[in-house]
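Technical note accompanying the year-one report. For the benefit of new consortium partners, we illustrate the data format agreed upon in the data management plan: each record pairs a sequence with a structure-token string. No post-processing was applied to the example shown here.
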Amino acid sequence: SSSRVFALLDTPVDIGDAPDATPLPSIQEAIRFENVWLHYPESEQPALNGISLEIPKGRTVALVGSSGAGKTSLAGLITRFYDPTEGRVSIDDHDLRRVTLESLRTQVAMVTQDTFLFNDSVRNNIAYGHPERPLEEIEAAARAAYIHDFIQELPQGYETVIGEQGQRLSGGQRQRLAIARAVLKKAPILILDEATSSLDSESELLIQKALQNLMRASTAVVIAHRLSTVRSADEIIVLEKGRVIERGDHQQLMERSGTYRHLHELQFERE
């Protein structure tokens, strides 16, 4: 076991701070993608193909499209999980390759489909990364995530241990804990990657309300297969094979009878 641990620790880091990296100030204007291409080493086709778009501060932009269209790849560039092969990603004209990773990632909160929780108390799971936060702030975050009442009913309330990966909780409850964690972070940039997938209708409704609370104070990028979760976005970007093929709000895209409307009608028929 220790050999595997040290092998992981000794793995070279591909993404790091440039020698001249500077701290990134808080976002004031927009996140910009300028002719961005992304190639993964194991793939012959580019994951992103000349993407150019702008996400103004305080706006919610949704990324939709079929699996493999490039949605998660595009969002991952904001956090510098990888760097573009060509082009530039910037925040307020600061090239993300020239800012420190710590200053960038402290400005971003993520809620993904696969929530990672620890075999620890509810309180410590919400306050992950911020152990100094008082209980009052943790409770306020839980209320915003519509999970406070449930926590109060647990045997030890916020001190209840939830098991490995939160196994004592339902999928919707785990997801709302992750949202509470993001609320507590108060990051100006929010990435939601399939945050409502694989949930029942009641859980999805509660989570959508919680996400509205979370997005209200953020610049948000929302990735979703369920188009019901993106109707209220300020702009919807439709991707296909790494390219932007449509963009507009829900009403505009429904009027164009293009890919978005086709996807929407397919989901509506299934539901």
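Partners are asked to follow this layout when depositing records. Residues 192 and 222 are 5 Å apart (CA to CA).
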